[in-house]
Amino acid sequence: MDFLEIIKVIILGVVEGITEWLPISSTGHMILVDKYLSLNVSSAFKEMFFVVIQLGAIFAVVILYFNTLLPFSFKNGFSIKKETMSMWYKIVVACIPAGVVGILFDDKINALFYNYQTVAIMLIVFGVFFILIENYNKGNQPKIKAISEITYKTALIIGLFQLIAAVFPGTSRSGATILGALLIGVSRTVAAEFTFFLAVPVMLGASFLKLLKFGLSFTGSEIIILIIGMLVAFIISILAIKFLMKYIKKHDFKVFGWYRIALGIIVILYFGIGTVLS
């Protein structure tokens, strides 16, 4: 494995760490970056890598929110934190739609929608939605200002938005769930945090399925690629999450909407012109 391949993996890890948590579509960015910095690996490994690299991003959430996510307390003996367990039950409910569809139709979804046209359209459409919803909510006080105030109905609605992201690449899992939460009156900070928490079981499940599909037989260079990619994604994810939580305390999500629209147009022009010229 040469030095250039390591540089490529580091760049991909940086892109994953940033775009997984900001609502701007990690898939859209990975597709673009891969066109210029394509790893010298098999197509099967690359498909698996683009999913399993998310384990690094998940670990960042676990570390940053460890006390919030841990449903057990060891102070004065062992006890279960009822409020945290309630949150996890709601996370499970929110994950059911995307989980069922992902298990049953993963290959079909990839075959039908994993293309630049879908990515570009969803980047633009959800970018517009972000701008419209933020304009609509301007001046309104959110109805839900804490994770504990999220009901099972609210969790299921957010889960349905996550399902859209599971089907249509370019939507952005974090973008779809945050948008759905804002639409039903969840505050920006709670919407972002609940999105982070939803990612833990979703990404673990997706990574597990991809690993099973690929098999557990790796070459030495493939193991190095996975470790470096996940490690870089972990470090960058910590920075990205901290940035987003600080940013949305004083700003709305419209800047991400405009960014998505611009990126969607770039994707259409880049791949569209390339297709015509070829």
TrEMBL record:
Membrane topology summary: Multi-pass membrane protein
Cellular compartment(s): Cell membrane
Transmembrane portions of the chain: 48-66, 87-105, 111-133, 154-171, 191-211, 223-245, 257-277
Pfam families in the record: BacA (PF02673)
Source organism, top-level taxon: Bacteria
The enzyme's E.C. designation: 3.6.1.27
Catalytic activity: di-trans,octa-cis-undecaprenyl diphosphate + H2O = di-trans,octa-cis-undecaprenyl phosphate + phosphate + H(+)
UniProt GO MF annotations: undecaprenyl-diphosphatase activity
Top-level EC class: hydrolase
Entry keyword set: Antibiotic resistance, Cell membrane, Cell shape, Cell wall biogenesis/degradation, Hydrolase, Membrane, Peptidoglycan synthesis, Transmembrane, Transmembrane helix
UniProt family annotation: Belongs to the UppP family.
General remark: Bacitracin is thought to be involved in the inhibition of peptidoglycan synthesis by sequestering undecaprenyl diphosphate, thereby reducing the pool of lipid carrier available.
Task of the protein: Catalyzes the dephosphorylation of undecaprenyl diphosphate (UPP). Confers resistance to bacitracin.
Protein name: Undecaprenyl-diphosphatase
Gene designation: uppP
